[in-house]
Amino acid sequence: MIKIVILFTIACILFPSVVFLSAYGDGLASETLPPSMIGNKNVTLSINTSPFLIDNYHAGTQINFVLLDVSNQQPIPQATIAVSVFRGDKAVLGHVFMSDSGNFLLDLIPDSSANKISIDEQGGPLPGLLGHSGEYNIRGPTFSAGGLYKFKIEVLTMGSYDNQVSKSFNAGVSIPETNNYQVYDKEYGNQNVTIIAYYDQISNFQYNSNDKTMNFVMPFNWSQDNIKQVSVVHQELKIPKSFGEFIVTKYDASINGVKLPDKAVSIDDYSSDERIVHLIVYKEELIKIAKQQDGTKQEMNFSLTPSNTTSFPIIQFTRNAQYKVSISWDPPKILPGSTTRFSFQILDPYLINKTVDSIDYDFSIIAGKNGAIFHKSGTTDNNGNMNTIDTQFPSNYTGTITIAFDNLNGNSFADSEFSGVVSPPTIVPEFPIGALTIIAILFSTIILFPKLVKK
């Protein structure tokens, strides 16, 4: 429970729009549709989705519809809605749902063995006869696949099952889809890359080992009407920390050849044993891409590659969200046999650039997962100055490293880790003296030859 609260707190700070996705979205985890007059009431429809665990091996999606009275934000009782669901151009579900409270909870349970979709109303020994709980289990093969699902919700009754009305709402809900790929890198061998798509299904994943570029495609409607409805497009890439050339401080990303701003790409080394790279593109950036891209193909072609530039400092929360750790190192490229200076500060988690009072710390450099290269215990500067540690790296090691801070202020939960890589040195080809002499003679002959011809 503590970890969930910490992750939620950090998510709220880093990605507030992702945690609370609001109005007018298309393919969101949560949205509230624009209000409309139905009879003499101003009514809106709230939609929320979340994954839930069916058993230890299968996850489903829970969709919550609430018909709300705008004046008091309370559910409108005895509501009946007709829901039609489309995936792409194909209709996958059509059913009438009833709820005494005005709150509808639909549990979409993937079942690839089922031949058709089944719908069961939950609640009490005789659901439907002694009242309507509004909770339904919907089981079938369709919901095994993620992607963008379009919903048409028609309100048939509200306030009383005898009070018939007619009003339609349209919405889009994304069911996240996880895609696993194995790539081969000529320097780091086979690596497993995971992409979680939060908007629609992706395809055509490719990795180019020569220029270290990942590409994948997602369908997207670039019409102005559709972009107006979209609040955010989010992709999450999980990259093994053993994938050295991809464990960098900065990435270059683009959609349809248009470079994304740095703020659209964020790195998370905290939430998982893998490096997580978030691509988060908001409506304003989508509008810019629509104007700059070549052609009008109805898709997003994503590209991600390690940047040639370095982004410092790197700032990350401790595991208990008590502190933020800000770190950079010089030179930016760590080489075997060289000395690297690490500069860091321990910051207040909620105030910008505000250092905390002097505290104790443990600083470690770890090769791979458990090979200690360096360790030092110390106390941070009390005047807010930068703390520095010089580290000599062994000449016989290249590969990924973990830069770890532990036991900040004596708290075993106040720790943080950063990922880096010790790069192999660049090898400059050497020419023997004889080869250099031959090159010099040939060069002189080329210069003198026209003069000899003239004579």
Question: Can you offer a commentary on this structure?
Answer:
The protein is mainly β and 455 residues long. It folds into 3 domains: 23-175, Immunoglobulin-like, CATH 2.60.40; 177-306, no CATH class; 314-422, Immunoglobulin-like. It has helices at 2-14, 16-19, 224-229, 283-292, 433-454; strands spanning 30-32, 36-38, 41-53, 59-69, 74-75, 79-87, 90-99, 103-110, 118-121, 135-140, 147-157, 164-175, 177-185, 189-197, 203-208, 213-219, 232-239, 251-255, 258-259, 265-268, 275-282, 299-306, 314-317, 324-330, 339-347, 360-367, 371-379, 387-392, 399-406, 416-422. Strands 1, 2, 3, 4, 5, 8, 9 and 10 form an 8-stranded mixed sheet that branches. The protein has a 5-stranded antiparallel sheet with strand order 13-14-17-21-20. β20 and β21 (275-282) form a beta hairpin. 28% of the residues are buried. Residues 1-28 and 451-455 have low confidence and may be disordered.
Please mark out the parts with pLDDT under 50 across 5 or more consecutive residues, or reply none: 1-28, 451-455
Specify the overall morphology.
elongated
Structural class of the helices, strands and pairings?
A: mainly beta
According to CATH, what is the class of the largest domain? Mainly Beta
Q: What portion of residues belong to β-strands?
A: over 45%
First CA to last CA: what distance? 92 Å
- CATH-defined fold name of the largest domain: Immunoglobulin-like
How many H/I helical runs? 5
The count of domains is 3
Mean pLDDT over all positions: 83
Tell me the Rg in angstroms: 29 Å
Helix content: 10-25%
CATH architecture level-2 label of the largest domain:
Sandwich
What kind of sheet is the major sheet?
Answer: 8 strands, mixed
